[in-house]
Amino acid sequence: MIKFEQVSKRYDKITVLNEINLQVQAGEIFVLIGPSGCGKTTTMKMINRLIEPSSGKITVNGTDISELDPVELRRNIGYVIQSIGLLPHMTIAENVALVPRLKKWDKDAYIDRVNNLLKMVKLDPQIYGDRYPAELSGGQQQRVGVIRAMAADPPIILMDEPFSALDPISREQLQEELVRLQEVMKKTIVFVTHDMDEALKIGNRICLLHNGKVVQLDTPEQILRHPANEFVRGFIGESRLRNNATLPAISDVMVRPITSRPNKGLAEAIMQMRKQKVDTLLIVDSDNKLLGRTSVWDIQSRFNDENLALRDVLDPFAPCIAVNCELTDAIQMISQEQVSYLAVVNSDHKLLGVLTRASLVDVMAEQFSNGTNNKDAMTVSEQKGVVA
Question: Which of 26, 100, 192, 291 could form an S-S bond across to 1 if both were Cys, CB 3.0 to 4.6 Å?
Fold first, then answer.
């Protein structure tokens, strides 16, 4: 759709963009991001010729835009800016209809278009159509700015930090609104931001610029998993990278189980449960092989029979997982089977540890939020006596 070939921009001896090459695909949200002065806004403004390149070529659908009339080009490209730019003397409906009217749309057609767009962003045209910009909140005005850029149904929309002046709640709502609208409208959107969280949330692909050059261009997933260099790592931030780190092994997350032998009496088992503050025991033999489980309810229902031992009340089907499985498998199993724990066993079915919902939450929080290493997190869990 949009292609930059060896594009540079210089002001006297200052080079703002240095022979960049990139391609924006049709129907994607393409995010330009980087530190101040990296050339992201300059790159975007070249698409509608608000800024002309010093060298190189920019094409849209194979056509060199330098050969097009700039006014006609801009009427076919939507443009949303940080300051919104609504005309204060025009009503909301008149603001949204501005470009269709300039393009001499039929009145009924553009009125219908305005009403539909207002409904799409949850602004009732009967209520808001005749209001003026000053009568709307900042978030509502920005919604109008977005749909005004879409009003003439342009294939390309440029958005220059459109949400950065809003409060965090309004900003997040509009990010979600943009993604929702894009699923319906399928526009080609070039979005400039300095906020990495925003880029990761809305972008199909992210182009990270530094000193006028493209340092990485890829999907959010690939950028998080494979930052190109230390500059990219630093710009993304270690906390985001840590939150997307590879999950630890099951052996690093499992914690100490509470076990008992099959010959133990029921009264002894109840006393152990009270002491350890658990409602389930894992039953193992002398070689530590997992035989099954028993719960406090299993014991209570047959407690009056003094001749019974745990072997008589155990359930041989204890939920378990092999230690060499992936942690994602364990998480999925706990969720699908709706169990509170998994016994971790080796190939000989010997009990090595246990994964509980609580231990997973504790360890993952330590691993990804606070950056604690796995060994430290496991030690903390063991000291707490996390059990099945």
Answer: 26
Amino acid identity for residue 329 in this structure: D
Nearest to 170 by CA among 178, 159, 182, 158: 178
Q: Residue 308 to residues 16, 149, 152, 273, 317: CA-CA distances in angstroms?
A: 83, 78, 81, 17, 20
Per-residue pLDDT at 388 exceeds 60? no
Q: Which two tokens stand for residue 215?
A: 């340092």
Rounded Cα distance between 158 and 105, Å, is 22
> Residue 134 has what DSSP assignment?
G
* CA–CA distance, 229 with 223 (Å, rounded to integer): 10
Q: What is the mean pLDDT of the chain?
A: 85
**3-class SS of residue 247:** coil
- The pLDDT of residue 83 is above 80: no
Q: How far apart are CA 111 and CA 115, in angstroms?
A: 6
CA 278 – CA 100 distance, rounded (Å)? 69
- Residue closest to 43 by CA, chosen among 76, 16, 67: 16
Closest CA to 155 of 72, 76, 45, 64: 76
Range in 227-231, 258-262, 347-351, 363-367 the model is least confident about: 363-367
Condensed to tens digits (0 to 9), the pLDDT of residues 315-347 reads: 998 889 999 888 878 888 887 778 888 999 999
Q: What three-state secondary structure class fits 168?
A: helix
Are the C-beta atoms of 158 and 47 separated by less than 8 Å?
yes
Question: Which residues lie across from 280 on neighbouring strands?
Answer: 295
Strands of 147-203, DSSP E: 156-160, 188-193
pLDDT exceeds 80 at position 361: no
The CA distance from 318 to 339, in Å, is 10
Two structure tokens written together for 168: 């965090």
